[in-house]
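Quick one, probably user error.
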């Protein structure tokens, strides 16, 4: 009986016996990461490399989880397509695109809370919603899905709103400043750094939604379940060591001159 058991164990794949934490990093798949461009959070440097506080945090967590990574800054449409066909294994964001729910998994740990704001021009009275939206022009970012429930409310026929879009965040902000729209719907993390870089005072706004950002994993990768388990474990380990893992707080610490851990010890 013992001989039979030993033979059966020998025939099992090594990962099932050893456990994922004992698999050499080189034997694990390289995680293909897609991240949208966000000022300071994720962008390309002069050498074309992905850099920024979100890039560093993602690399830190994947390293601790035992994975190598290939991190690229990609447009939203490429990320959606990659999650659907498995070319992109991981994306930090919010699942808000119809059809992605069945094709993806979410990690359990929050990376931060993402605010979606309704911006308007300085000097205008604070709008009373929803009455102030009736018949107004709303500026959106092309290919950004925001949050489905929020867009459905804004597209209510009773509001009779018209919608314009821009391919870029700069273009959308300029449309608002030039009066080509009454309101701009965008992520706080995109607008605030852009406004500051233009030397402008912060734009008045109303926060319409706030959702947790997590890692969205493509089921088409073939290892999404294991990657989810490993990333949640890595998050818990680093949190227990006192590492700040909220990406917005990490950026604030960098602004204050703090040195952040970018590689696990």
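Nope, works fine. Designed sequence:
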């Amino acid at each position: 009986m013992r001989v039979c058991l030993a033979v059966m164990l020998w025939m099992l794949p090594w990962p099932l016996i050893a456990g994922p934490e004992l698999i050499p990093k080189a034997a694990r798949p390289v995680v293909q990461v897609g991240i949208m461009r966000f000022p300071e959070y994720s962008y390309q440097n002069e050498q074309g490399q992905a850099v920024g506080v979100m890039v560093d945090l993602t690399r830190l967590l994947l390293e601790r989880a035992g994975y190598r990574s290939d991190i690229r800054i990609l447009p939203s449409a490429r990320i959606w397509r990659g999650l659907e066909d498995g070319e992109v294994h991981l994306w930090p964001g919010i699942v808000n695109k119809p059809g992605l729910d069945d094709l993806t998994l979410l990690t359990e740990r929050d990376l931060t809370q993402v605010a979606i704001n309704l911006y308007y021009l300085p000097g205008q009275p604070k709008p009373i919603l929803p009455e102030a939206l009736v018949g107004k022009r709303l500026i959106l970012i092309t290919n950004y899905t925001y949050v489905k429930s929020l867009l459905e409310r804004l597209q209510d026929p009773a509001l009779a709103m018209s919608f314009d879009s821009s391919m870029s965040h700069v273009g959308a902000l300029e449309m608002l400043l030039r009066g080509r729209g009454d309101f701009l719907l965008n992520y706080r993390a995109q607008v605030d750094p852009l406004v500051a870089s233009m030397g402008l005072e912060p734009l008045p706004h109303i926060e319409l939604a706030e959702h947790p950002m997590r890692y969205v994993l493509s089921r088409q990768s073939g290892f999404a379940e294991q990657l989810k388990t490993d990333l949640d474990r890595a998050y818990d380990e680093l949190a227990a060591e006192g590492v700040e893992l909220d990406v917005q707080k990490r950026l604030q610490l960098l602004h204050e001159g703090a040195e952040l851990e970018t590689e696990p010890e």
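The two ends are 44 Å apart (CA to CA).
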